[in-house]
Write a structure and sequence with these properties.
- It contains eight helices and three strands.
- The chain has a three-stranded antiparallel beta sheet with strand order 1-2-3, with no helix packed on it.
- Helix 5 packs antiparallel against helix 6.
- It is elongated and about 90 Å long.
């Protein structure tokens, strides 16, 4: 194998693959001062001269001048897994049963959606209207009611769920996870919406959606450890959401053992 290289004295030489220097293949010579690089080369020698001239104008080392003020400072939020054991430990049989029921709900929704898009009886907020979605889900409540359903708000009706496309499903799910993190409160109404939105997620999951589900499971685990009694109304719903994220959506490292 022969390689053609341009030497420092403007001579094109050939070298073997092992680096052995062979005899010159093409001598370029000196470049005249009246050489016009804008004129298309007529010979191979003129083409090489253009290459030599352009190479002579390049610095040996080029450092990009990056305006770092145009970049946002990146931050990484690390959610540590809760190490405190929950007040209850769901059995494997219970978790398997919940996953089977959840799978049946998903199949039923998929069959109904295949029949055609159902128009909801109410007007839905825009995808970017977070305040509008909060008002729809929880009514006029400034915060979800912990020990019961919201005094207002609309439940996740099938007509609403089937009218939502996948980007909207994922966005509203993200809103609920953010509300759960910000308010550190869980309600029956929010549990219904979270369960329903999970039932509408299409597989395979996008990486962003998978990360969102992991955040949901961790937040549910954190809220569950704050409950004082095992018969608290939020205990079972929080455990159910953790179970579905871990076992149905295959995030097994977050599962209850």
């Amino acid at each position: 194998m022969l390689l053609s290289l341009l030497s420092l004295d403007n001579t094109v030489v050939t070298m073997s693959a092992n680096g052995e220097h062979l005899e010159p293949a093409l001598y370029v010579g000196e470049i005249n001062e009246d050489f016009d690089p804008m004129v298309p080369p007529a010979t191979g020698e003129e083409y090489i001269q253009r290459v030599v001239l352009e190479a002579s104008k390049c610095d040996d080392i080029i450092v990009a001048n990056v305006d770092r003020s145009r970049f946002k400072e990146q931050t990484v939020n690390v959610n540590l897994s809760v190490t405190e054991p929950p007040l209850i430990s769901p059995s494997i049989e219970w978790q398997q049963c919940q996953v089977a029921d959840f799978s049946a709900v998903r199949q039923n929704l998929a069959r109904q959606k295949a029949l055609g898009i159902i128009k909801p009886s109410i007007s839905l907020p825009a995808r970017t209207d977070e305040a509008g979605w909060y008002l729809l889900c929880f009514g006029n409540d400034t915060e979800p009611v912990e020990n019961g359903s919201s005094s207002g708000g609309v439940p996740p009706l099938v007509s609403i769920l089937l009218s939502m496309n996948q980007p909207l499903i994922e966005q509203v799910l993200e809103y609920h996870v953010e509300w759960l993190e910000a308010k550190s409160k869980f309600s029956v109404q929010q549990g219904r919406w979270l369960y329903s939105l999970l039932a509408c997620l299409e597989l395979p999951l996008l990486p962003e959606t998978c990360s969102l589900l992991r955040t949901l499971a961790r937040e549910c685990s954190r809220l569950r450890t704050s409950l004082k009694t095992s018969d608290h109304p939020s205990m079972a719903p929080l455990t159910l959401l953790i179970c579905l994220v871990a076992h149905y959506f295959r995030q097994m490292d977050l599962a209850d053992t």
